Amino acid sequence: MSITSSFLYHFTGGKLAAIQGILQTGYRISFSDEIEYFQDQDGSMIKERRAIPMVCFCDLPISQIRSHANFYSTSKSEVFGFGMTRSWAEKNGMNPIIYVSPQSYMMGLFNWINNYLQFQTRKGLIADVFHGNNKSVLESLPHYADFYSTIQQDDYNNNPNVVGAVYPLKDNNFEGMHKDLSRFELFYKPTHGIYHRGADQIPDHPYYFEREWRFIPKNLPRIRVCEEIEIMDDQRNLVKSNYENFLAKRPIYGQLAFSADDIDQIIVDNQESVEALKAYISDPNFKSVCGNSVEAPGEKDRLIAKILAWTAIEKDVH
């Protein structure tokens, strides 16, 4: 039996309305709060939170999808999602996650990359001073006198001057290797670790079993970072507060579109939802999938044939 699938699955915590919305406008590229741990040069562990715009999929065969679908859905009986073709995923530049064991050589490599990026970020701020930037080094770093005037601005997410707030990802910030290493870090995940769901924490969650693929926009200019740096508690709390306020708004970076041909399966919770989605697609007002017309003869019928009830799938894979 294959341990992978011919398709990549995306499950949503929404219900039938979420499926209808995705068919109309595509997947929302929203910011995911990724929590990672790195070892600093002095051996201390640094907790870092990154707000990365992405859409996630899993590469699991239908026979192994049950626990994953139940975990990421609203409830075990309300499972909604899509199975997308692998060719569509590859065409859009998706890539599987690199899973790293805590004591491995790869973890050491990621620690080195993180330290390098931190150094280059600070180095870049200093270089700005010598190239006519009006802000001084002290004004740019968060643990100096004007920290509050720097961080307390409504447009916090667009502030590139706060160390620990953003990592630049474009060539015009740092050239060559810095850009490549920055993007490389966006596809890292531990083999297992704490999973955060709202205020709850699930210890020792096996991320490796998810076989995750990610879509991350290629033109991403920077990412927002909140790290536990050695600064005064009130300043650290302010960094955290601004970061969490940004996440609470859940800004949408954009949409990831597809056509009806890119879909292999549309999964809804039960037969009642199957019939409701059939009626929705059959309605004359439903004319396109993400702007791609489905009005040619037979196109809607082919799309409807891809709808599956989760209750039926569960019986087959039980």
The residue fraction in helices comes out at 25-40%
Quickly count the domains. Answer: 1
Largest sheet descriptor: 7 strands, antiparallel
Give the distance, in angstroms, between the N- and C-terminal Cα atoms: 15 Å
What's the tally of helices?
11
Average pLDDT level? 74
What is the H/E order? Answer: EHEEHEHEEHHHEHEEEEEHEEHEEHEH
What is the alpha-carbon Rg in Å?
Answer: 22 Å
Number of strands: 17
How large is the share of residues in beta strands? 25-35%
Poorly predicted ranges (pLDDT <50, ≥5 residues)?
123-178
Computed structural class? alpha+beta
What coarse outline follows from CA principal-axis ratios?
globular
How would you describe this protein?
The chain has one domain. About 35% of the residues lie in helices and about 30% in strands. It contains 11 helices and 17 strands. Strands 2, 3, 5, 7, 11, 12 and 13 form a 7-stranded antiparallel sheet that branches. Strands 1-4-14-17 form a 4-stranded mixed sheet.
Walk me through the topology.
Blueprint: E1 7-12, H1 16-25, E2 27-39, E3 45-58, H2 66-72, E4 80-85, H3 86-91, E5 95-96, E6 98-100, H4 105-130, H5 137-140, H6 147-151, E7 166-168, H7 177-185, E8 188-190, E9 193-197, E10 200-205, E11 212-215, E12 222-227, H8 233-249, E13 252-256, E14 263-268, H9 271-282, E15 288-289, E16 292-293, H10 299-304, E17 307-309, H11 310-317
